[in-house]
Amino acid sequence: MALPKMIRVKRHFEAPVVTDLPAAIRAELEAIDAPSIVRRGDSVAVATGSRGVANIDIAVKATVDYLKGIGAKPFVIPAMGSHGGATAEGQCSVLAHYGITEETVGVPIKATMDVVEIGQTADGLPVFLDRYASEADHIVPINRIKAHTDFNGSIESGLMKMMVIGLGKQKGANMYHRAFFQYSFEHVITTVGGLVLDTGKIAFGIGLIENAHEHTAKVAALRADELIRRERELLIESKDLMGRLPFDTLDLLIVDWMGKNISGTGMDTNVIGRMMQNFEPEPEKPAILRIFVRDLTDESDGNATGVGLADFATTRLVEKYDRHSTYMNGITALGPQKSKIPFYYDTDREAIEVALSTVGLTPPEQARVVRVENTLKLTEVDISEALLDDAKLRSDLEVIGGLKSFEFDSDGNLVMFHKA
Hints:
The protein is α/β, with parallel strands linked by helices. It folds into 2 domains: 6-13 and 244-419, no CATH class; 32-241, Rossmann fold (3-Layer(aba) Sandwich). The chain has helices at residues 21-31, 56-69, 88-97, 102-105, 131-135, 159-166, 169-180, 185-198, 227-241, 269-272, 315-320, 323-332, 348-356, 388-392, and strands spanning 6-11, 43-48, 73-78, 115-120, 126-130, 138-144, 204-210, 216-223, 249-258, 287-296, 312-314, 343-345, 369-372, 380-384, 397-399. The strands form 4 sheets. It has a 6-stranded mixed beta sheet. A 5-stranded mixed beta sheet has the order 3-2-6-7-8, with helices on both faces. A two-stranded antiparallel ribbon has the order 4-5. A hairpin with a 5-residue loop joins strand 4 (115-120) and strand 5. It is globular and about 70 Å long. The mean pLDDT is 95.
C-alpha cells in the first residue's frame, strides 16, 4: 500500500515555567502563613497520587522539608484510589516510579487500603478517608490541576478529586464512580470533597499547573477555606496552557505510547477527542476517524486502561496487558468499555495499512495523518503531506523537517519517534 509521506512540525505554545520549584513552594506556603495552620509537633499526611505529574518528587520533598522546618511531623501517603493493583505494596511501587521513596523524601511512607467512614453527604453517600490520613492532625494533598478525561465541569482533575477518589482508596473510588451514574461527576466531587473539607483536616493543598511541554508552569498553595474557589480559577488557567493536536479533523492518529503515567485513561481524552464515558457527551472536536496506539509504557505495570479508546493496537502492547490491574481499574471506575482490546497486529506497518483501508474513499497516501509520541508530548509531531499547506499558513506551527516516507525497521515497526 502507498502510505502518506510525513513531515515534522513544531508547535509554539504559551509556556511559562517555574524555574525553582522548591523556592516557589516555600514562597507560597509563606504567603498563606502555613505555620499558623500547622503547629509544631503536628502530624501531617502529605498525599500524592499516581499520575505522571512533572516534578512531583521535587514538590513532595519541598513540602515535606518545609513542614519539617516548622517543627511538624510529616509523612507521605499514596492517594490514588484503586491504582497499583489496589494494594498498599502496589501503591508504594507506583510512588517509587516517580522517585518518591522514604530515602528520597526523608520521611516515612505509610500505605494502606483501609479507610474509615467520616460521614455522609446530603445524598446519603458515605465519605471514606484513608486510615492514616484520618489519624493525622492535618492532610496536605499535592496534585496537578488539569482537565479531566471523563467529564467537563468547573472542578475536574486536581486537589478536590484527590481528596475524594484518591483518599477514598479502592472502596471510595468504586462507590463514587458508581454514584456518578446517578449524579454528575462534579456534584459528587464537590459534595464528598466538601465534607472532607468540613472535617478541618485539610490544612492546605499544593496545586500544580503544567504547560504544553510538560513543565511546571505554576504552583499555588491553597488554604482550605479557599480551595474550591482557587481550584476553579486554576483549572481555567490550566486549560489555556494545555497541549492540543495541531489539527482537529484527522483520518488517522498514531500514538506511540499510552500509559497510566501519561493519563488516567492511557491517552488524554481531551487530546484524542474520545471519552467513551457513560452519560457524558462525546467531544465534537477533535474528530479523529481512526486511532492506532503502538505500545504501553513500562511505568504502567501492565495497566492498559484506555486501550479501548483506540481502534487498532499491536501484539506487543496486548501482550503487556495485565488483566488484574486493568480490570481492577476499569471496574472501580465503572468504565470497562474503555479497556476492551482493539484489533491488533504483529507489526506497525500492518496496523497502519489496515487503519488507512478503513477511512472511506480517501486514498491512503492522501490521508490526514498525525503521529505523536504520546498525548502529553505535543510540541513536535509528524503530520502527513495532506496537512502541509494548512500547516504553512499557521503562525503557531513551524516546519522543521522534510517530507519522508514512514521509516520501518526490519521487523516492520516504526523507528522510535525521536529518530523519525
